[in-house]
Design brief:
- The protein is of the alpha+beta class.
- The protein is built from eleven helices and twelve strands.
- The strands form three sheets. The chain has a five-stranded antiparallel beta sheet with strand order 2-1-5-4-3, with helices on both faces. Strands 7-9-10-12-11 form a five-stranded mixed beta sheet. The chain has a two-stranded antiparallel sheet with strand order 6-8.
Length: 441
């Protein structure tokens, strides 16, 4: 009987040990699975039996270290994604086979990919077949040494033509010996446009200056070679020189005005401005010129509440410019009409702007030229514009003055039917005082 009891005790003890061992192993398996799944670690398993205790401590310590490193790697990855996502440049990392391994959202915009397109894991040639880009990738993968960049500008055609500067750089080989290459896409379209504007501006200024300078020099040389002795001829030549000198003066004044406006150096002295009062001053200046040209200068009375929050001198400058243009390009017998009226915000009954418009019955402008009328030195009829004394900067100055006030402008025109320029400027608050109109109480 004693041996049977002893055997039973040994069997029970062995079963208990086996149960404890299985429980410890199950706890370790659950712990390691939690590490592999990158989820929250469960509580550290209870100390196992003596034979497994050392292994349990080693496994749990290793698992906690791995979990900590994984957490740090995930945090680093999130920081990298945040940096890439906030970049204005597009970034692609490709392997030696041309397969994308990393990208940011910006590259989808620059390459005009569909929203939400998956880049990672796809060959670059599936994303874009641009020949210059493929050639750059071929060169950098076959010819470039690690760390040596290749840079190339390339034009991309699409919804909006743009130019990208692409920098391709080989990365050092990883532990697996595989090579990788980083492509950085920088949009230089605006820089190219500004370069083009600068070149056009220099060319236009040179052209505009050359004509009066050539005339002044030519007539001066004629006078110096003896024409000054002929009193009538000399007087006529001096009149021509004076006319071209005046044109040079207007051109320089307009260039300085436009430069100050573009650089924000022109201070606006804003106050509540009575629109009718400004129109009165413009008509005082332009009435004689309109009468000499046989043009009827008209106005449509504005409501008493038509007041602007603007610089009165600048508003007068804008209207003088527009009325002067209208008179120049309207044939004798035509008319020029100036109007001011409060304008409600679209979808609202509250008045927040004043519409100033100058309408003429002149020659009109082709529709294809309308978007470019406010460009510097742009002329629909260059020869006639110069003949009439225009510098080609008037509407550019108007646009910048209006924009400086936070307003906008638009132009409508029909050939042989006339042109209308609409200006929208902020309305003055009703509580703001204004100077009384001439003849008022």
């Amino acid at each position: 009987m004693l041996w049977f009891i002893s055997l039973a005790v040994v069997a029970a003890l062995a079963g208990w040990l086996a149960w404890r061992t299985r429980a410890a192993i199950r706890a370790l398996v659950a712990f390691t699975r939690a590490v592999a799944a990158e989820s929250e670690l469960p509580p550290r398993p209870e100390p196992a039996i003596r034979g497994l205790r050392r292994m349990q401590r080693a496994v749990t310590s290793m698992a906690e270290a791995v979990h900590q490193r994984l957490a740090e790697a995930r945090a680093e990855q999130r920081r990298l994604e945040a940096v890439l996502g906030g970049m204005v440049e597009g970034v692609l990392v490709i392997d030696a086979e041309g397969v994308v391994r990393l990208s940011n959202r910006r590259v989808q915009t620059l390459l005009e990919l569909s929203p939400g397109a998956q880049c990672v894991g796809r060959p670059l040639i599936e994303l874009t077949r641009h020949p210059d880009l493929q050639e750059l990738v071929r060169r950098v993968t076959q010819e470039s040494e690690a760390g040596r960049s290749m840079v190339q500008e390339m034009a991309f055609d699409g919804e909006g033509d743009h130019t990208l500067q692409v920098t391709a750089t080989p990365l050092s080989s990883g532990d697996d010996g595989g090579r990788a290459f980083i492509l950085v896409f920088h949009d230089v379209s605006e820089l190219k446009r500004l370069e083009r504007v600068r070149r056009d501006f220099v060319a236009n200024v040179s052209h505009e200056l050359r004509t009066p300078l050539t005339a002044i020099r030519g007539y001066s040389e004629t006078l110096l070679t003896g024409a000054v002795e002929d009193r009538d001829l000399a007087r006529r030549f001096v009149a021509v020189i004076d006319r071209h000198a005046e044109r040079l003066n207007r051109l320089v004044d307009d260039l300085l005005t436009l430069s100050d406006l573009e650089l924000g150096r022109t201070r606006l002295h804003r106050t509540a401005v009575d629109a009718e009062e400004v129109i009165d001053r413009v008509f005082e200046v332009m009435s004689d010129k309109a009468a000499r040209a046989g043009i009827a200068l008209q106005r449509e009375p504005a409501p008493d509440t038509t007041r602007l929050d603007a610089d009165p001198d600048r508003v007068e400058q804008v209207l003088l410019n527009l009325v002067d243009n209208a008179i120049k390009y309207t044939p004798r017998g035509g008319r020029v009409t100036v109007r001011a009226r409060p304008t409600p915000e679209p979808g609202s009954a509250e008045v927040d702007a004043v519409e100033l418009s100058v309408h003429d019955t002149g020659v009109g402008v082709p529709s294809r030229d309308l978007p470019r009328l406010t460009e510097r030195f742009y002329r629909v009829d260059a020869a006639r514009s110069r003949e009439l004394g225009g510098t080609g900067l008037g509407l550019a100055i108007v646009k910048h003055i209006v924009q400086a006030h936070g307003g906008s402008m638009r132009i409508e025109s029909e050939i042989n039917r006339g042109t209308t320029v609409y200006l929208y400027l902020p309305a003055a608050p009703s509580t703001q005082a204004t100077s009384p109109r001439p003849g008022g109480d």
